[in-house]
Design goal:
Number of strands: 8
Order of helices and strands: EHEHHEHEHEHEHEHEHH
Structural class: alpha/beta
Radius of gyration: 17 Å
Number of domains: 1
Helix content: 40-55%
Distance between the termini: 7 Å
Largest sheet: 8 strands, parallel, barrel
Number of helices: 10
Bound molecules: cytidine-5'-monophosphate
Strand content: 15-25%
CATH class: Alpha Beta
Strand order of the largest sheet: 1-2-3-4-5-6-7-8
Length: 234
């Protein structure tokens, strides 16, 4: 069954934890990204874990293998349930991430899933600053196939790409999809968007949703509505 992950893109832990508290029972996964982690550091991840949430630490690591190995080791030690690296970092970086994951995992705990970011869902054709670059969906598929060969658990991609990625990489290969927008809302800075129902229909395993939930007048009602739409598309 597909799961909703709420992106806690807040400037401080007080706001993020208060949002998480208001969603308790309706959502089981929270995402900590660059803004919140840069402001508050590991404590916010521990705070969410203490509240009983699964945590996706979305820091999109992209560096030399040794540095990424250490970063994933630290994320695993912190208790993150899912982390991500850029597929563009290539095979040696991906392998270093997997080593770091094993080194850092808390004894007795499940190691975090490692996903590869393919093409950001905010990017459309022409946004990649590379002459003659393939279309974003083609690029996402190529990177997903490579990340699978490296041994990673899955990818971050658009809901538009899930069908092709699953058919090339197998149904067990995880597809986590940001760029989710209920039909009534604008896409904001996102470009390759789908509705919650389309994402589930296409086979997405995790739907990441930020502003449509956290910016709603009742975030809990917005999350429940999205989960209902997801369930009806299963
Ligand atoms: O507010 P919105 O639903 O657009 O938030 C999407 C979240 O997913 C943001 O936190 C963003 O950083 C993250 N994300 C993304 N595209 C990716 C990877 C992560 O939008 N490829």
């Amino acid at each position: 069954m597909a799961q909703l992950v709420v992106a806690l893109d807040f400037k401080d832990a007080a706001r993020a934890l208060s949002m998480a508290r208001s969603l308790k029972g309706a959502v089981s996964w929270m995402k900590v990204g660059l803004e919140l982690f840069t402001a508050e550091g590991p404590a916010v991840v521990s705070g969410l874990k203490d509240m009983g949430f699964n945590v996706f630490l979305d820091l999109k690591f992209f560096d030399i293998p040794n540095t990424v190995q250490g970063a994933v080791r630290s994320a695993a030690r912190l208790g993150a349930d899912m982390v991500n690296i850029h597929a563009l970092g290539g095979e040696r970086m991906a392998q270093a991430a997997m080593v770091g994951c094993v080194e850092g995992v808390i004894s007795g705990a499940k190691p975090p899933l490692i996903l590869a970011v393919t093409m950001l869902t905010s990017m459309a054709a022409g946004d990649l600053p590379v002459d003659g670059a393939p279309a974003p969906s083609e690029m996402a598929l190529d990177l997903a196939v490579k990340a699978k060969q490296y041994g990673l658990n899955g990818v971050v991609c658009s809901g538009l790409e899930v069908v092709d990625i699953k058919s090339a990489c197998g149904s067990e290969y995880i597809c986590l999809t940001p760029g989710i927008r209920p039909a009534t809302l604008s896409g904001d800075d996102q470009r390759r968007v789908v509705t919650p129902a389309q994402a589930v229909h296409n086979g997405s395993d995790f739907l990441v949703v930020g502003r449509p939930v956290t910016g709603a007048s009742s975030p809990r009602d917005a999350a429940v509505t999205i989960v209902e739409e997801m369930l009806s598309a299963e």
